[in-house]
Amino acid sequence: MLNLPSCLLLASLFSVAFGRPMVRSINSAREFDRLLEKHASSTGLPVIADFYSDGCGPCRQIAPVFARLAKETGQENAVFVKINTNMVHELSGRYSIASIPTFIFFHDGKKIDVIKGASEGMLQQKISSIVTRSRRENVLLKKEALIEYYKEVDESTTEEKIQTVYQKCAEMNKKYNPEKLCIGSAASQLSKRLKQKYNKRVQTSVRFTDEDRRPTSSTDKKKTEEKKASSGASDKPNLHLATKEQLMEELEKRLEAEAEAREEEMDEDDMSEFDHSYTPSDFPERVTIIGGGPAGMSAAIYAARAGLKPVVVAPVGGGQLVGKGVDVENYPGLHNVTGPEVVSAMRTQAAQFGAVFECETVTSIDTSQRPFKVYTNSTEITTHAIVVATGAESNWLNIPGEYEMRGGGVSSCAICDGAAFYGKDVVVVGGGDTAMEEALVLARTSKSVTVIHRRDEFRASKILAQRVLDHPSISVKWNSVVQKIVGEKVISEETDTDGDNDSVDLDSEQMFVTAAILKDVVTGEESKISCSAVFVAIGHTPSTQFLEGIVDFDESHSGYIMTKGVSTRTSVPGIFAAGDVSDAIYRQAVTSAGSGAAAALDAERWLSEEGLGNEEAEFEAALMAELMADDVGTSSADHYNAYEDVGGKVSGVKESVKTEL
Q1: Which residue among 417, 433, 502, 583 is the active-site one?
Q2: Contact, 391 vs 541, CB < 8 A?
Q3: Which of 50, 69, 426, 647 is least enclosed, having the fewest CB within 10 Å?
């Protein structure tokens, strides 16, 4: 007899629906281990894991691609999951996640492949490869089939020897193989070797059917349960006879599945903001904004409010502000908000006023004719005016070991990669605001943070510098520069108890940071500091390469666009520059937002001066005027009135409408 709490639990169980989300968020190592076990033993599907962080710009950029590839691949072919490195430290440490985004591919519960900072093409290629492998290795070799095979090809082989062969095959997959069957890659290899030896293939069968691999819908689940009930067989406990502990465990599973389904739906809603909302028109756009940071978003808001319907072309990263792991404290009116939240609010505001987005990277622009043409990887936009607000990219030290160990401990984004070095010693190079912010972010999770600066005082704002100096986990080495980054090669290998060497990829050697060689700029003395990561924060270079040979650049500040006077106008009429691409002095989010607004105002005035209005609206107005003129010119004698034709009576129309007519 069930007590009241058990009855309530039972009622809750029947109200919760199962469902596999398209991209599942993993909240714990235990949950991930259960997932690997399930698909290794019940479906044979590969598991593709995206290790990410909310504040990582590249992670945000690749997230919609990952979700789209998940849909294109199909739930019957692979399982896609996301793992937040800031939340699940155990998995980050287990798989040596040293940079993000990192994608790891699992099959039969083993790590098969890994890529770091993948492009869409590379990610698609790896997904296709792992899906093909899972299909190819979806093999079961039964002992009975092996015995019959030897009877045909070699009758002298005893059943004891056959048992030994079969047992060796089964032992190659100890994990997730309680029945000790010859399955997967081991079965495929054994079948291939027998074919080579006896010139005849042993009969194998499919381990998991398409029905096993396909996610079960609620209708199919109900039919299956009804079928099992009618046959008296069921692999699930009878909930009516279950103990309270069993009910609690089952409820936890179902609530988890329901939460994942809700989260997936919310993620899809969030990502709709970054979809390609731009639709090409038969008429040129009046203004196209290149860049998605504060300058680009401010320009978009002002241009949209002016009725220019701007097109914003930018990846979803959102510029340097998205990489800020600390709160944005120096932007008026904002309190207790992070960089990603600020950029998201800006995008939402711009969209509300009519801005549309094309989430692509601009590869080139053509100014040889008017209107201009803006080219991305997949689209071509014709536009009268362009606002360039592409921001800047991180500078590097260009020292030995730096390039080789990017992804192995060398990074320029603490909020992106800092969580991978939980409880470890790390180094930050730089003395400006960016370096201070990086150090403070890393101090939350790292064992210790050492700031390396080439001068005897910081260039950063006083409040940030003082926070760094006062922090107990942060130390500073003054008058020092990094000469070399030292590391060691590590073969990527997952700890696996089944002894299967297939889980080791001998080709995937990665250099990981172990120390940094420092030089005192005053004494010239060299020293060595042990660390697991080096974060470089020594400034940025404007992202203006696609404009070389088109606009004039500031000779005194390499890479920065030259603007005319106090305006945002460039040497090419119709092209305007805003934010860090033209500001070599201040380079702040608030000054970038101000110059973005100025660029939109300058663009609006320029369009008015050139007489470039809304051509689409003007065309429609002219067409309507022409139609109206034709209508007025038509004589009343030639005008046909359907109501007069029926004697002025209108049947079948409501009385109120009759009165109006």
Answers
A1: 417
A2: no
A3: 647
Asked if 552 is an active-site residue, the reply is no
Confirm whether 417 is a catalytic residue. yes
Q: Which two tokens mark 570?
A: 């460039």
pLDDT in tens, 614-657: 877 777 777 777 777 765 555 444 554 544 544 554 444 444 44
Q: Enter the tokens of residue 412.
A: 């320029």
**What gap in Å lies between CA 437 and CA 460, rounded to an integer?**
10
Q: What is the CA radius of gyration of the chain?
A: 32
Strand, helix or coil for residue 556: coil
Give the number of other Cβ atoms within 10 Å of residue 549's Cβ: 6
The phi and psi torsions of 69 (rounded to 5 degrees) equal -65, -30
Distances (CA, A) of 256 to 23, 28, 264, 445: 14, 12, 12, 28
For residue 105, the cross-strand partners are 48, 113
Long-range CB contacts (within 8 A, 24+) of 508-513? 508/114, 510/98, 510/407, 510/408, 511/401, 511/404, 511/405, 511/408, 511/487, 512/96, 512/98, 512/405, 512/408, 512/409, 512/487, 512/488, 513/401, 513/405, 513/408, 513/409, 513/410, 513/485, 513/486, 513/487
Q: Is 182 a catalytic residue?
A: no
- Is residue 250 very low, low, confident or very high in pLDDT (cuts 50, 70, 90)? confident
pLDDT tens digits along 534-573: 999 998 889 999 999 999 999 888 899 999 999 999 999 9
Is 296 a residue whose pLDDT tops 70?
yes
State the pTM of this model. 0.60
Selected catalytic residue, list 59, 182, 416, 531: 416
Ranges 234-238, 265-269, 398-402, 534-538: which has the least confidence:
265-269
213 token code pair: 């691999």
Structural tokens at position 287: 């203004």
- Please report which confidence band the pLDDT of residue 22 belongs to, taking 50, 70 and 90 as the band edges: confident
- Residue closest to 367 by CA, chosen among 393, 388, 394: 388
Helix/strand/coil for 364? strand
Alpha helices in 77-119 (DSSP H): 89-94
Distance (Å, whole) CA 587 – CA 389: 12
Q: What is the residue-averaged pLDDT of the chain?
A: 81
Cα atoms found within 13 Å of the Cα of residue 48, Cβ hemisphere only = 26
Residues 387 and 599: beta-carbon distance below 8 Å: yes
Q: Of the residues 169, 182, 359, 413, which is catalytic?
A: 413
Residues 6+ apart with CB under 8 A from 53: 59, 84, 85, 86, 100, 415, 416, 417, 419
H helix runs in 74-207, sequence order: 89-94, 120-136, 143-153, 159-171, 184-198
Rounded to 5°, angle at Cα 490 from 487 and 495:
140
